[in-house]
Amino acid sequence: MENQLLQQGKFLPLMELFYTLQGEGFHTGEAACFIRIGGCDVGCNYCDVKESWNPELHPLTSVEEIIDQVCAFPSASVVVTGGEPLKYNLDFLCAELKCRGLKTYLETSGSETLSGDWDWICLSPKKYSPPLPDLYNIARELKVIIQTEEDIIWAEENAEKVNASCLLYLQPEWSMRKTATPLIVDYIGSNPRWKLSLQIHKYIGIP
Prior knowledge:
Blueprint: H1 2-7, E1 11-21, E2 31-37, E3 60-62, H2 63-70, E4 77-81, H3 91-99, E5 103-108, E6 120-123, H4 133-138, E7 141-146, H5 149-159, E8 167-172, H6 177-190, E9 194-196, H7 200-204
């Protein structure tokens, strides 16, 4: 029964749900509730939430219970992240959030088929498991994690695939920020269609 409800998207492996300020990308500084769903097989070596990878470590939770928790917070913005949230059918979650008048933001690598009708999709592509073509077409924001100059080449390859209105961000990988940030700053100076994204939440010590 649980597997059927999981396939229908009425239950999800909830790793954590918390209220904070968005620390990255276009919506930096905006108050939002974050829903982190467990399960990811992309396997980024720099992932800072590796504990999210195994969905079996996180309890299957009803979408109704998740939404009740979300609605206890004052912001109308909800960020669904992971892990890789698109491993699951998010149609029901997204529809129910919208029924409550909430703005729905998705953070994804784009490696899985899209589900849900989102107000904003932030695509963060990974070399190990590149995005599916459809995700490039509808992303509102492209956020590429940078460790070395080779990653900037990868970023440009991805930028050629997104729609013309998609916003472009380069973000230093946290453990490499002292060397990666100057690379990004120099590159944006010569390529101003890109913007810098920093993990502000880590600098100010919030979730």
